[in-house]
């Protein structure tokens, strides 16, 4: 019986230094290629696909496509900040949707939060699209924040919490669902009691 299968062979092609978006500091990297091979008795024999090149950080071991080498630190920080603002807005939409509907007051609040606190102006059409996607996929605010907040900085976590609080309290009071989500955010965002409380207190003064 002939044993036939496939495997990926990975090789290091080059080394250098770059700004790692995950570490948020300059790091050394390896330029690597990955290529699938047909194996016979677990021995790679024939390449069956083209080689895929990628960059791997020596510090955190994260991998990136080659475009990561084309941006300097400021470029990466700008992209990360833009990504954070979009993610924070989605989190605000999700916490508003937690009770199953969105009021005109909440829409107005989301528009104000986007253009003010998050500095990423949006419109009703975009909010509607985000709401539809979230509803169709049954995305929960807690699961979403748990997944994406790991790459947020401490100031970003604080701002996201404030934005979510303002969105949740847009009607003048917090619903049971929104209150439960906000309570979980302290742990999800890895905030201490003083950090959590001061962020909420500051949000109360936001206009």
TrEMBL record:
Residues 88-199 form the Co-chaperone DjlA N-terminal domain. Residues 19-65 form the Zinc-ribbon domain. Pfam families: TerB, Zn_ribbon_15. It comes from the Bacteria. CDD domains: terB_like. This is Tellurite resistance protein TerB. It comes from Novipirellula artificiosorum. The lineage of its organism: Bacteria, Pseudomonadati, Planctomycetota, Planctomycetia, Pirellulales.
């Amino acid at each position: 019986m002939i044993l036939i299968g496939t495997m990926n062979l990975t090789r290091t092609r080059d080394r250098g230094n770059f700004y790692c978006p995950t570490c948020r500091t300059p790091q050394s990297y390896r330029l690597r290629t990955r290529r699938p091979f047909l194996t016979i008795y677990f021995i790679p024999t024939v390449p069956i696909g083209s080689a895929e090149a990628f960059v791997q950080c020596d510090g955190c071991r994260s991998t990136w496509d080659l475009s990561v080498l084309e941006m300097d630190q400021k470029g990466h920080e700008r992209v990360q900040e833009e990504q954070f603002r979009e993610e924070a807005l989605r989190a605000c939409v999700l916490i508003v949707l937690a009770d199953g509907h969105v009021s005109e007051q909440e829409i107005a609040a989301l528009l104000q939060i986007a253009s003010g606190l998050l500095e990423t102006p949006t419109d009703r059409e975009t909010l509607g699209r985000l709401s539809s996607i979230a509803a169709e996929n049954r995305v929960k605010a807690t699961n979403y924040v748990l997944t994406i907040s790991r790459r947020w900085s401490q100031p970003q976590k604080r701002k996201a919490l404030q934005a979510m609080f303002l969105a949740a309290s847009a009607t003048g009071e917090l619903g049971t669902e929104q209150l439960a989500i906000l309570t979980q955010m302290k742990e999800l965002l890895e905030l201490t009691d003083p950090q959590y409380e001061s962020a909420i207190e500051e949000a109360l003064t936001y206009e």
